[in-house]
What does this fold into?
Amino acid sequence: MFSIYNLKPRFQKILMPAMERLWQAGITPNLVTSIAFLGSFLTGIFIITNKHQLWSLLILPVWLFIRMALNAIDGMMARQFHLSTPLGAVLNETGDVLADIFLYLPLVVFYPGTIWALYLFVLVAVLSEFCGVLCQALGTIRCYDGPMGKSDRAFFVSVLALATFIFPRIIAWWSNLFYLASILCLLTCWKRLRHGYFLLKKGR
It folds into this structure.
């Protein structure tokens, strides 16, 4: 099943010059990870403090693209310059989960009626990342199967934010759309666990 994650190799190739410049400037992978987390936290605060301004939704497509780039760069840098560490793995996985919470829960200020749909979306988003890490913890690989992985969620929310700004009436459909996205997140959990189980049976 298609996932935005499948485009990652091409995206990384585009980001390679930027990654090399950051490395030459003395930027470490852990610092890039920390910047991505801090930026997500501040973006969430911005959304909350500008809850009466629909234009503030436009920050989401911009920041989520930047965050996706930073998430790709920290991994590229760690692998290319042999800087992978347990601390880096902890920062990366924990930061991703917390960033999703800080970015998506604040959306409830625009439409309180979507609170339970957003809670469910964030919950299953966190669960999907747990399933991916669990596969690695059991001795296989970190599973990134879609259809609603981290990049897919970022794309979904970005498109929804942009569409809502252009056509404000779409906000009335938020609950249904987030429930649908939650179902896709649950499918993602199942696919990741199935992938990990298959690899375990093969002895990989």
